[in-house]
Design goal:
The chain has 250 residues and is α/β, with parallel strands linked by helices. It contains seven helices and eight strands. The strands form two sheets. Strands 5-6-4-3-7-8 form a six-stranded parallel β-sheet, with helices on both faces. A two-stranded antiparallel ribbon has the order 1-2. A hairpin with a 5-residue loop joins strand 1 and strand 2. Helix 2 runs parallel beside helix 3 and helix 3 packs parallel to helix 4. The protein is globular. The chain binds farnesyl diphosphate. Farnesyl diphosphate (FPP) binds next to helix 1, helix 2, strand 4 and helix 3.
Length: 250
């Protein structure tokens, strides 16, 4: 069963959280620079924030948390910084392999894993296999790695074109549900709420297909400083929105 029952937030208030929250974990570099630390220290702190927020999401009954860890454009950063982010991912995946069954946490990756180091890919494969053995209603964290929204759409369209070329499908059969089923997010409901910390107000190629009716929440807080109370505020803002999906209020 999807965990969408009412739960208590940090302030002890009953809330019905969104089923799927997505977060652009932005501001790690600025957080570190402000403290005279290397940017990599910001990513280390940001990874800990991910752990804290994922745990909180699970506890308050959010079923899916999707985070933007590394974009198709992030390869432009220094080799040191890219290496540090990949190293952190490896560390968290190694830990996840040992704990996800016990904690009932499923892990899934969005993105093109082709250029990712074999060791990290193997670990992602391992966490995928563990996730497949866990009940579907368990909390699921989706980590976007070498991910770009346009790239995801392109890869889905290429898969469809290949199916057409193989005679398995016809172009006129393509509809939104079929294309959704070819995305990295196949089978996962679209995020109701997308959060971007750090004061930037743009989407940066994140979940372009899935965000059609998402509510957006921006805060100046830098990701390493983001905490449970901040998430409560974002959820409260989301709950105050009037979602009409193109219709009119009854
Ligand atoms: C954006 O902040 C952050 C990233 C590009 C990297 C995010 C990666 C992690 C938090 C580490 C690994 C993740 C997991 C899930 C364990 P920025 O560096 O662009 O910040 P800035 O805008 O202040 O420079």
């Amino acid at each position: 069963m999807a965990a969408i029952d009412t739960k208590n937030n940090q302030a002890g208030q009953a809330i019905k959280p969104p089923r799927h929250i997505a977060i652009i974990m932005d501001g790690n570099g600025r957080w570190a620079t402000k403290r005279g630390l290397p940017r990599t220290a910001g990513h280390k702190a940001g990874a800990e924030t991910f752990r804290k927020i994922a745990t909180y999401c699970k506890n308050i009954g959010v079923q899916y948390l999707t985070v933007y860890a590394f974009s198709t454009e992030n390869w432009k950063r220094s080799a040191d910084e890219v290496g540090a982010i990949m190293g952190l991912l490896k560390r968290y995946l190694l830990e996840a392999v040992d704990t996800m069954e016990r904690d009932h946490i499923r892990l899934h990756f969005f993105g093109d894993m082709t250029p990712i180091a074999p060791e990290l890919r193997a670990l992602a494969h391992e966490t995928d296999e563990i996730s497949a053995g866990l009940p579907e209603g368990d909390f699921q964290a989706n980590v976007c790695l070498n991910y770009g929204g346009r790239d995801e759409i392109l890869r889905a369209v290429r898969k469809f074109a290949a199916q057409c070329a193989a005679g398995e499908r016809k172009p006129e059969e393509l509809d939104e549900a079929m294309l959704s089923g070819l995305m990295d997010s196949a089978g996962i409901p679209d995020p109701e709420l997308i959060i971007r910390p750090s004061g930037e107000q743009r989407l940066s190629n994140f979940l372009l297909w899935q965000c059609a009716y998402s509510e957006f929440y921006y805060t100046d807080t830098l990701w390493p400083d983001f905490d449970e109370a901040e998430l409560d505020k974002a959820i409260a803002a989301y709950q105050s929105r009037d979602r009409r999906f193109g219709g009119v209020k009854k």
